[in-house]
Amino acid sequence: MSALFIFKLVLVLLLLFILFNLGRALWILVKGETNVPMSQYLGRRVIFSVLVVVLLLLVLGTGVITPNPRPY
């Protein structure tokens, strides 16, 4: 497997984990559970979102992936 495929797989898994944490926070908000604070899941989402942005900037900076020069 190439490094690019592994990076894309890690990126997709991180994004799915972010969505999972956002869904858990929504579930706690709707159900009103008080045993686990909603901020725990929201904080985790923010940390992993920052990690995704840093990884994208790092990989773009090293030239492993290139942005689309013409988005239209």
Query: Helicity range of the residues?
Result: over 70%
How many strands in all? 0
Secondary-structure element sequence?
A: HH
Structural class: mainly alpha
**Rg, Cα atoms, Å:** 16 Å
How many DSSP helices?
Answer: 2
The biggest sheet, with number of strands, parallel, antiparallel or mixed sense and barrel status, is: none
What is the terminal-to-terminal distance?
A: 31 Å
Proportion of beta-strand residues:
under 5%
Mean pLDDT score: 88
Shape: elongated
Unreliable segments of 5+ consecutive residues: none
Could you give the topology of this structure?
Blueprint: H1 3-31, H2 38-62
Helix pairs in contact: 1-2
How would you describe the overall organization of this protein?
The mean pLDDT is 88. The protein has 72 residues and is mainly alpha-helical. The longest helix has 29 residues. Helices cover 75% and strands 0% of the residues.
What structural keywords apply?
2 helices, single chain, mainly alpha, about 70 residues, about 0% strand
What's this model, at a glance?
The chain has 72 residues and is mainly α. It has two helices and no strands.
